[in-house]
Each structure stands twice: as structure tokens, then as C-alpha cells.
Design a protein that fits this description.
By secondary structure, this protein is mainly alpha-helical. It is built from six helices and two strands. It has one domain (about 5-120).
């Protein structure tokens, strides 16, 4: 590996670490709530239908945010992994998203929602 490739790799890994830290802050540290007020939705498409019907004012930002927040993860997976198959990357993103929702549900952080996994 020459010097230019090393600099490129260090930069990519540095940006990836910053992305992971930002993801942790957004998903776990910005929405701390009490355990007695936790919200868990296990009905698929329930929240999405609530958003479509217009019952929530921040629906657009929530839906777009859930989609956009994991786009860099898919990009980095394709850059870092030797296995470039789409199904493998989708499975990994699904597992990460599922893990995030389980942690949010167990710790009472934000709202744990099956629709977030679908959107991600």
C-alpha cells in the first residue's frame, strides 16, 4: 500500500468513526426519556399509516430521517467489505437497525418502533 492509499484509508476510517459516533449520539443520547414513558410499537406499518393520515406533525422528518440516517452505513459497507452482494449488506443493515430498536426499547430511549426497521 503506497502513501496515497494509506491516507485515503485513514480518511475513510476516520469519517466512518465520526459517522458511528454521530449515529450513537442521534439514536441513543439525544432522546433520553423515562422508563415509564417508553413507547414500543410492534405493529408493522402502524406508525407509517399514522404519518400518512396526518396525525403527527413531524411525520415527514421522522420518515426521511429514518431512511437517511442509514444511507452512509450502506455506503461504507460496500466500501469496506469484500463481499459486495446487496443481500448481505441489507441483512447487516437490518441487524444493526434491529439492534438499535431493541436497545432503545430496553433502555427506554426514544421510541422503539418496528416501522423504523422497515424504513431503514
Amino acid at each position: 500500500m503506497n502513501k496515497r492509499e494509506r491516507i485515503k484509508a485513514v480518511f475513510l476510517y476516520g469519517v466512518f468513526i465520526c459517522y458511528i459516533l454521530l449515529l450513537i449520539k442521534i439514536l441513543f443520547l439525544s432522546r433520553i426519556s423515562h422508563l415509564e414513558h417508553r413507547s414500543i410499537n410492534l405493529t408493522p406499518f402502524y406508525s407509517i399509516m399514522e404519518y400518512i393520515s396526518g396525525r403527527f406533525a413531524n411525520a415527514f422528518s421522522n420518515v426521511v430521517g429514518n431512511i437517511v440516517i442509514f444511507i452512509p452505513l450502506g455506503t461504507y459497507l460496500s466500501l469496506f467489505k469484500n463481499d459486495k452482494r446487496v443481500i448481505t449488506n441489507l441483512l447487516l443493515i437490518f441487524i444493526v437497525s434491529l439492534f438499535v430498536e431493541i436497545i432503545q426499547g430496553l433502555l427506554g430511549i426514544g421510541a422503539s418502533d418496528i416501522d423504523d426497521i422497515i424504513l431503514n
